[in-house]
Amino acid sequence: MRPQEAGFLLLTSKLGNPERKCLSAAQLRVLAQRMQAAPKAEEDRDLTFLDLMALGYGEEMARRIVGMLEEEELLRHYLRRSERKGCIPLSRLHPKYPKDLRRRLGLDAPGCLWAKGDVDILDMPKVALVGSRELMPENRQFAEEVGRQAAIQGYALVSGNARGADRAAQEACLAAGGRVISVVADELDKQPMRERMLYLSEDGFSEEFSAARALSRNRVIHGLGCKTFVAQCSYRKGGTWDGTVKNLRFGWSPVFCFRDGSEAAQLLVQMGAESVEMDELGQFDSLEKGEMSLFTE
């Protein structure tokens, strides 16, 4: 593993210690921006306390970052555990790290994704599916049809493995012979190995579920897909709403919302999502998104 890859892991993964205060995506973005603007240091030289002070950090934060980078033995131990569990780290510098995710999210892309399963699925074109846990029957059919069409049309399906829309779409995709990328918010190492399936997570491979992790992973789901389909959404609340509104604001991927007549779906369309019917899913490539929205200046 190259020193830069180890650095990403040391700064962004809890390494099995729930109390370890690694950098958030926002903090990692700030560090990357400051390093890009600074004069180039010698290649592969370790980042020092004085370097960080010169980048504008206070003494406490500079010591914290240096302290994280010095925990190399903890990293080696964690990597040995991950290998036994069938989990591997994909830092931003890893050849399998999704280029589309890095391009769409920029410096907000995770410093590292942990993977379990068939990483070659990351090379496929991808569409994402999000939606509520409690589904109306027609909305469940929409989620299942997105999954089925992804398999038929040669796309990997990206979702979040939650009860409801996520699993309905994932299982329909697998049943139709397709491939699935599931971005989980709980322990990666406890996910069952399944044919044609890849699990991804942030923070590490052994982190337990938290609401913060569930919300954070939304940008990965939306950013991995060249299109994002919304099967059902609660009005102004919940993870599906939060992630979709942020996507529409920042333009991670075009959003297509099931035309179910709900207040939430209508508002998402006003914000820039495209309304879509079940019978329009037969050709993902033909779907186009309008340009005007509440976020358009």
Q: Please tell me the total number of domains.
A: 2
- Unreliable runs: none
The overall average pLDDT, rounded, is: 92
Number of DSSP strand runs:
9
Strand order of the largest sheet: 1-2-6-5-4-3-7-8-9
Tally of individual helices? 12
| Secondary-structure element series | HHHHHEHEEHEHEEHHEHEHE
Kindly report the oligomeric state of this protein.
single chain
Helix content bin = 40-55%
CATH architectural label of the largest domain: 3-Layer(aba) Sandwich
Q: State the CATH class of the largest domain.
A: Alpha Beta
Here the CATH topology of the largest domain equals: Rossmann fold
Report the sheet-strand fraction.
Answer: 5-15%
- Shape verdict: globular
Largest sheet: number of strands, sense, barrel closure: 9 strands, mixed
Please give the alpha-carbon distance between the first and last residues: 45 Å
Radius of gyration: 20 Å
Structural class: alpha/beta
Q: What do you see in this structure?
A:
The chain is α/β, with parallel strands linked by helices and about 300 residues long. It has helices at about 5-10, 25-35, 50-55, 60-70, 70-85, 100-105, 135-155, 165-175, 210-215, 220-225, 240-250, 265-270; strands spanning about 90, 110-115, 125-130, 155-160, 180-185, 195-200, 230, 255-260, 275. A 9-stranded mixed sheet has the order 1-2-6-5-4-3-7-8-9, with helices on both faces. Helix 11 (about 240-250) links the parallel strand 7 and strand 8. Helix 7 packs parallel to helix 8 (about 165-175) and helix 10 packs across helix 11.
